[in-house]
């Protein structure tokens, strides 16, 4: 079978709508993928799981001194609510949260530099006793009419260290506050935590020689707010559908499972749900192959191996043999391979990262405009050449073990040490 980028692009167009975790649109995308599998003659199931979400009723930020002005914000889901009349406190810009910045932060609303809130900074903010947090995104060159303000969530990992009211604003507005010397503000956050249902799509092609041994392919199909999510990660979803088509026409020696994960964007929720629900099956998983982002015309293919060094060398050799240029390294990749690696299943992650300035992610500009059928097909061939050699080998050459250096990387990514410490303190 010839890999067909145009066919992949047609499916990508079908998936090109915003489909956030737990939404009706995410379910619609799951149904599209299920129907594609069944059109190939492969039964597929939708496996549901519950996710934590929140409905934000009110989120406001008003500077009170030395001037009076309200700024547009979104509220952090699952963060602590204020009282109905809000939180009024001094406002302090603490930059990256160095100790000197935080020395006088107790009881204040703090503004932090742009970026996603990570455990190290959040832990320091909680220890400093801040009363509220304002985060930022974007650039000073943003056009308000073409810039969306995302809604973020205070995840369970962070909440293990505490919780305060949190809102999110634009860099444009954070800059204005600091430049004008804003020193007192009122923050209002009122939300309610809710449960929603998300889904994984699962299809299986049984092996002809060793059906009890499993290699699984994974890709997430949800997107973030405002984004059509074709680069991240409709592309990975359609690449794996093309790989499924190949193994339908060319039955594999080992069983191959294809799993499209929901709710990856809010903390790998779909893959965590899968490994939790399939613990007994996992002992038969020899390898997890994940595809996350692909298709940009200008870019670089990358292969990240969360497994033994010999597997890294193999992937590098295969990329060269099949004339698919790629940067190959041993490491971890922040996607659905993490729960598998944490469960002892080696993983290979494929991605085609857009060149600087030639791709967009997690915003309204993640559209088909910078993708091509040729680039999709190129990555698909790389995934296929590496995977089928392993899947069809008489003896599976990959040790089902995560080497110690990768165990440490996974544990660092999951902040296991910090979570254990805070659990012990409680």
Overall description:
It is a single chain. 45% of the residues are buried. This protein has helices spanning 5-14, 24-39, 99-102, 119-128, 156-159, 171-179, 230-249, 269-277, 279-282, 309-321, 337-342, 373-391, 404-413, 416-425; strands spanning 44-65, 69-71, 74-75, 87-95, 109-112, 132-137, 166-170, 184-205, 210-220, 254-261, 285-291, 299-306, 327-330, 347-354. The protein is elongated, with a radius of gyration of 23 Å. The protein has 14 helices and 14 strands. Strands 1, 2, 3, 4, 5, 6, 7, 8, 9, 10, 11, 12, 13 and 14 form a 14-stranded mixed beta sheet that branches. By secondary structure, it is α/β, with parallel strands linked by helices. It has two domains: 5-52 and 196-413, Aminopeptidase; 67-182, Glucose Oxidase, domain 1 (3-Layer(bba) Sandwich). β12, α10 (309-321) and β13 (327-330) form a beta-alpha-beta unit. It starts with a helix and ends with a helix.
**The named CATH superfamily of the largest domain:** Zn peptidases
Distance between the termini: 58 Å
Put simply, the count of helices is 14
CATH architecture of the largest domain: 3-Layer(aba) Sandwich
Number of strands: 14
**CATH class wording of the largest domain:** Alpha Beta
* Mean pLDDT across residues: 97
The structural class is: alpha/beta
> Which descriptor suits the 3D outline?
elongated
- According to CATH, the fold-level topology of the largest domain is Aminopeptidase
Query: Approximately how much helix is present in the residues?
Result: 25-40%
Total number of domains: 2
Main beta-sheet annotation: 14 strands, mixed
